[in-house]
Design goal:
Elements: E1 7-10, H1 12-29, E2 36-42, H2 46-55, E3 60-69, E4 80-84, E5 94-102, H3 106-116, E6 122-130, E7 143-147, E8 152-154, E9 170-173
Parallel strand pairs: 2-3, 2-5, 5-6, 6-7
Antiparallel strand pairs: 1-9, 3-4, 8-9
This protein binds 1-O-pyrophosphono-5-O-phosphono-alpha-D-ribofuranose (PRP).
1-O-pyrophosphono-5-O-phosphono-alpha-D-ribofuranose binds next to β2, β5 and α3.
Length: 177
């Protein structure tokens, strides 16, 4: 039986336009940089990162990290651990962290702390969406796509129990309970 598709919160066209705009801003800001390292956070960032990376007009490369929160996602106290590290040494390099979503902020705050300690030439952050109402800790987002309300969103890398990650728009699901 086919799955009911989530209702649209942000359309595919809106996302494409926003990714174009972010790519233009980032390309302009880093026009003097000969290798911008885009750091994607698995799994959620892979679609946004792929779209963004292909629209940049500056020299860039891609690397990935994977993180995990202790406990289940609804009760996490924000403790984050690294389960996959970058392959490259980022010391002296320009780094842009790319996230699909900033929710409580714990993941991005951890990443910025961990990567800053490696002494990159610069370190900035980019997120497709953020939920300001859910924020628990400060985390700077230098390039932001959209602010969204506190609803469960899927698509463009975001999942609901691994479903709907590859949906081309951002939709809302209503988990029971
Ligand atoms: C999501 C998202 C961010 C993190 C943000 O990852 O990709 O990395 O949550 O949440 P926070 O601001 O509350 O820390 P998730 O743990 O769902 O894993 P996934 O990307 O593999 O789906």
């Amino acid at each position: 039986m086919p799955e009911t598709l989530p209702e649209v919160l942000i359309s595919e066209e809106q996302i494409k336009a926003k990714v174009d705009e972010l790519a233009r801003r980032i390309s302009a800001d880093y026009r003097e940089v000969d290798d911008l390292i885009l750091v994607g956070v698995l799994k959620g960032s892979f679609i946004f990162l792929a779209d963004l990376a292909r629209r940049l007009t500056i020299p860039r490369s891609v690397d990935f990290m994977a993180l995990s929160t202790y406990g289940d996602s609804t009760t996490t106290d924000g403790a984050v651990r690294m389960i996959l590290d970058l392959r490259r040494n980022i010391s002296g390099k320009h780094v842009l962290v790319v996230e699909d979503i900033v929710d409580t902020g714990h993941t991005l705050a951890y990443l910025v702390r961990a990567l800053a300690a490696r002494q990159p030439a610069s370190l900035k952050t980019c997120a497709l969406v953020q939920k300001p109402d859910r924020r628990e800790v400060y985390a700077q987002i230098d390039y932001l796509g959209f602010e969204i309300p506190d609803v469960w969103v899927v698509g463009c890398g975001l999942d609901w129990a691994e479903k709907f990650r590859t949906l081309p728009y951002i939709g809302v699901v209503h988990p029971e309970g």
